[in-house]
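From the shared-data thread, chain only:
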Amino acid sequence: MKNDNNTGVLNEVRYRNNSKSCWFAALAFGVAGFIANPADAQLARKPSYYQQQNKAVPEGAAMPPAAHPAAPASLPALRSRDDFDTLARVYDAGTPMQLAHVLFAVDRRAKPLRTYYIDTPRFQLHVRFVRDIGLAPHAGKREIDRNYLVPDRRFLFGTLSWQQNIGSFTYEFWEGDRLTPALLRQADAQVKASFFAPVKFKTNSTLHERVAKETGIDFVSQEALIREQPYMPMNLGTATGRVRIVDEASGANGLNALLPDDIAVLRQVPISLPPVAGVLTERPSTALSHVNLLAKGWGIPNAYVRDAASVLREHAGQWVALKVAASGYQVRRLTSDEIAALPPRNVRTAGIGAIPGGAKAAPPDLRETRLLPLASLRARHSAQCGSKAANLGAVLAARVPSTTVPDGFCIPFAHYDRFMRANGLADRIARMQRQPGFASDPQQRQKALAQLRDEIVQWPVEPATAAAWRAAWQSQLGGGGVFVRSSSNSEDLPGFSGAGLYTTVPNVKTGDALELAVKKVWASVFNPEAWEARSAAGFGAESVLMGVFVQTAIDSTNAGVMITRDPFDAGHPYVTYISAKRGIGIRVVEGQRVAEQVMYSSWSKAIQVLSRSAEETALQLDKDGGVKEVPVEVGRNVLTDELVLRLASVGAAVKRAFGGIDQDIEWATVGDRIVLLQARPYVERRR
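Structure, as tokens:
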């Protein structure tokens, strides 16, 4: 939510129907006028009384503008566009997020009912209006709260807006407003009888959607409006770099040719990405896709921009300054003097990938050679097994109510170290790094790394070691299907997420396949995206060791990821963000297709929908090993309100288990059971 107390110049800008705003100029106009909030861009939402009552006014913030004689305190009806313009406040004027809106109040005690369209720049909040004009001059917080929370309230407090992306007016209520069908019918009748143009109800929560459907009132959902947004900031920040447009035809070669000082313009959302200076994508994705998590961890600007390649084509290959803000983005071509003054590449890109001083591979303990069962693991075992396996052991030990954790065992770092020493890895890496072009050419580097991975999976494992793996798989896990997962000393760290860098082999069902899968996970230390991310973060190749977590496979009904805070606004610690798809959750984190996304606020008790999954297929376990694609019922929501509330409660419990540190949690459901698959610190940086 925007801070209405910090009004500034933009509050004097009146309504304009300007759907073709100049995006590049947006920030120059608006940055100084208000504190924008990226969550607003994600949710297409407006200020609420509840949030404003608890938000401090920043030091030096502008005072509310004085009343302007031309505008009355309120009007009983808006009979023309000029009337709307007279009372409207405009957020993010001249940007893709431009929103002109007028607050209104319906006095249900008046006979007949009376509607007040409020001079919004002057009063800013409903409560100020009803107090200042004498409707409820002495109303305290409890009395005001009733107008959002109970059916027999005196006032209906709402907002009427011009939605430029759909070319329509809407009216809406705070997402936590506990609307009833009777209240909505009353509000709908009052607004439509007193407004000059067609207007639709905008739903801001799943409760509002249910009420609208029950009453039969035409509505537009928040999710539908989000789909129409031409711009969506994923990670705010600034960067300097050379614009590189990666077309679909260039595929993986185009991605792998990207350099750390490139600003990547992507036609598709890729599964992985080498370190870059900034990212603009033409396809929206979730906050928890691998690419977005990488951008968060690297602290680089990242946004969805419709038609980004066309808009930025004139800048292709040129040095620019990029700024991603909540209200829009700015691209400015650097001058020749600015380019000449740029520091060397290693200085410019030194910080990408890590919190300074935080991205250090955890020191390994190679004395532990036993296969450690999940039940024995605690956070301290990260030195033997990596944080992923150790954290999951801590989750199991926390005994989070109404959850299960699939059993498994850890293959410790010592097995990786012994295998690589026996096969001469250090010398092999040294030879690879001496190859012509390895240090300077990303594509040459990719080829060399692929060759090394191919060699690793061919190297033999000591028979006794492989036999021990099979014995544990048979005796502890019953010889059933397992997921073979990475758990290195360079992922799930407080300063470095490592999300999406390493390989998981799903549903392994034979002893021979288990041995091969472990070697594939070991070899993924040399995945190109892992190599590039670690190099940018300052990890030496010799410092990285790979543990492996072998875990019972589950054929999940739904699966997803959640963050125990608002990923778009750190000021919302009471929010849980949840992303989900049907079936096994591999696609959720890959981010190639938009998952179902909701946000739950423990404060407002509202569930807000960002997107619904429209997929026609899901991944399930294949009886012969691996996974298969199966058709699913289209149109059925993945996340019910009941499941969202349960997941939010589970997320809060996991966060408490890790000392209050916000967590990025992988979860699944099997029938009615919630299954926990991973917990890692949520990493975010901003430049």
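The first strand starts at residue 74 and ends at 75.
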